[in-house]
Amino acid sequence: MSAKKVLLLMVLTLNLILFVSMSSLSTVEATSAYKTYTLDRNNELVETNEAYEAVEMIRTLSDGSTLDSAKDMFIDDEDYLYIADTGNQRVVILNPDLEVVFSFGEDVLIKPLGIYVVDDLIYVADYGLGLTNTDIGAIYVWQFDKEEDTLENAITLYHTYLTPESPILEAEEFLFRPTKIAVDRNHTMYIVNEGTTSGVLMVNENNRFIDYFASNSLNLTLMERLERILYQNNENVTLTKNIPTPVYNITLDGKGYYYTVTQNNQESDSGDNLKKINIGGDNYFDSDMFVYSDIVDAWCGDVENIYVVSSNGFIFEYDNEGHLLFSWGGKGIGNDKLGLFLSASAIAVDSNNNVYVLDDNKSRNSIQIFRETPFAEQVHNALDLYNNAKYVESIEVWQEVLRYNSMLDIAYRGIGLGYMMNQEYEKALEQFEICRDQEQYSEAFWEIRNLALIDNMDVIIYAIFFVIIAFNVIKLTNRKYHYLAFTADIKRTITKPKAMQEFLYMFHFLKNPMDACYGVKVEKRSSMTSAWLVLGFLFIFYILGLVYTGFAFNNVILEETILVKEALKILIPIIIFIIANYLMSSLMEGEGTFQSVFINTIGALMPILLIYPFVILISNVLTWNEAFIYHFGIFIMVAWSVILLYFNIKETHNYTVGQTFVNLFLSVVFMIIIIIVLLIVYLMVTQVVGFVSDVLKEVILRE
């Protein structure tokens, strides 16, 4: 091979290596430092397509200055960005190109923590020094004229609001230390004040205190409520003072709704930390919505969506009903990775749906910008149509969204509503079942059932008429010709075996429980085998209920159902109650044997065996409008069983009324004790098994 060919081969090889390296490098750079999540239909976080791409981190502003512990920001209708630069005691205004237009307030502000802009008026909540009771804050209002070029002409101090005027606040020795602010179009101010647990201060433009607004409720535990009932008049007992959690932040949209942020220390990531309330204080979000407890700010989007950020840098987007659409971002570790934060403090969104998030950590002091991806853009387009009741038009858009992520339940709900508007109820039913929207499923099913009844009403009437006539004809002719006499022989043949008689005797509990108990205890009319057979049928009907109960009334997800676990749900409580009742009855001089207690307790459950199959059947033809029929059936069988249990225990042990109630109460208490003991034993056995397993593994590995 000539030297020229060798040199050419080396150049090609080098180019190939460089190409592969650059491709790998670009792939790494294109990978986000965070993942995007949404909630699946089981209310669990699952990874989804990237909704927002981190595109920029601004640490140095265009004028060369830097932020210092900035706590709040706002974006107006023209995409001007206003920042409460807390550490620098100023307000910074950036134009849509993110260039500094003006910086002001250094000679007035002490500790600006909140900012809001309405009609070119810049409202700044200044906390003040806050060192003594005389150090109060203020609300400063500047007027901003965007047509002027100089700071002196463009920015004018318009008003200064000190402590709002009110006899109520004076009586409370109120200290005005504002931290956040929101302002409506009437220039009514909604001020979050440090330490105020009664809610947000509603103050008019004349600085007159109107009322407290959007206060959090006080949730007391059962023990705390009992303590207040028992010791409220006892001077020797000091009760812990419970006060509502103060509101941390507030924002509002253009449709009369207010969004409050509350920080709670709680174990789970669900609660009322984010509320959507009207002027009357009614919360439109479910208290069990998915939201972190350390959220610090919220922002209302253009399609009635809500953006929220937590102090750890997690960003959430919800629809107008509080359903989580996306979650992204997260906690950084001191590096400059885009999309991660050291300490997020505020969030805002411009007209192009770019998301801006402040990081107020001393080592970061930055603004990060996220750009929506085509996936998020499609979701927003569909939401816009959905919120404007353009359900038919939104079908194609939602279907496009599902091509990105087939787990987005709101897409199925939107498609289903579109089919409902098109009167394609069968298709709508399918979509609502996928997203487990039982309410809309019920509406679609009602339409299908209504149409079926209208189309087949004549057939139904003729069928009922025919059945009535046939029944009466057979009844009359059988009296004369006795052609159904053979059924009596069949009945005698079936019921002749002793085991069958013992099983059928269990149905006597439905008519006369006292006689049935006597027959079991004294006459031995039934057996343990019959009781176990009834218990087996109860379990079978329970499983059938899980599978065949109508979707509108069925909250069970079959894919996650474990048969053994469901069996234990039925068998363990019943068996433990029987054991607890027998042991407690032995201490209370009850006359029942373990066998009679077992059989008679199972006999008290016979109403479930009788009624529950019909409840399962009717659940498949009922809608939410007739839900009372379904729930009434459940109530009847449970109430009937409880009444039978009372009479069975009374008759089995020959108790008085009072003794029976005491026995039942103590049986339940002892039942709980047994369950606790079993759990403790289970945990101890698990730990011992784990310890032995670890020791064996260590020995094996060492060998």
Structure description:
The chain has 19 helices and 25 strands. It is of the alpha+beta class and 703 residues long. The chain has a four-stranded antiparallel beta sheet with strand order 3-25-24-23. A hairpin with a 5-residue loop joins strand 14 and strand 15. Helix 8 (425-434) packs across helix 9, helix 14 runs parallel beside helix 17 (606-619) and helix 15 packs across helix 16. The longest helix is centred in the last third of the chain and has 46 residues, at 657-702. Residues 3-30 and 266-270 have low confidence and may be disordered.
Task: Please summarize what this structure is.
The chain is an alpha+beta fold and about 700 residues long. About 45% of the residues lie in helices and about 20% in strands.
